[in-house]
Amino acid sequence: MKRKIVLLTGASKGIGYATAQAMAKKGYDLILNSRNTSAAVKKLQEFGTKVEGIDGSLGDDDTVSSLITKVKETGQLDALFLNHGGPPVKPFMDVSDSEWETYTNIMLHGPLRLLRGITPMMQKQNSGKVVAITSFTVKNPYQGIILSNSLRAALVNALKTAAIELGSDGILINTVAPGYIATQRILDFNQRYAENENISKEEVDQRTINEIPLKKFGMPEDVAGLASYLLSEENKYITGQNIHVDGGLITAN
């Protein structure tokens, strides 16, 4: 039986790696992308699946072209997982024009260009699953992260539109919005907030936890479980959704 293939970007650590691991356990062959995939490729091969890595940033046109070329050479793609590193913690007035351009390319243009490039193959197959990682802040913007708030919201709406337009081709497209997940990015965020407010990181961590109804950080596997379901053959009727994995945070707010 022909094995299924999933392309995952931003997959060398955190939520991306956890999702790649979940897809490997489901028996999918993996094409990984991140700035450096070597360590992740080696670890994921232990699951007995075929794993290939393509290094580079989604903000780089050459990287996106290489990923599209790889998919065409493979002749098959069953699922696409879109993820990437996040932008810096900066308020609106501190973000330069060059930073807007850089992170628009990484967080919006790159993912959408990649999706457009692989869509004809999914249309030909009359099937395909797409999941992008966004953030709970697309619904409740937080101060100090203007780049993340705005660009992730733009991606959510672009993908909702694509889901409507491509549904008749058998392509299911969803986004997953994590809350406070225990990744290096959240740790770095809280460290930056602590420095800006001249308080300890532990105080910021506790303040964050107090916002969450479940009173704890989520784990990458919590997000990966949902993402891998939406990417797999198990998902037959969910599309055009932005689903929160946030311990009740948005409901509480």
TrEMBL record:
It holds the Pfam family adh_short_C2. InterPro entries: NAD(P)-bd_dom_sf (IPR036291), SDR (IPR050259), SDR_fam (IPR002347). It comes from the Bacteria. Belongs to the short-chain dehydrogenases/reductases (SDR) family. This is SDR family oxidoreductase. It comes from Flagellimonas yonaguniensis.
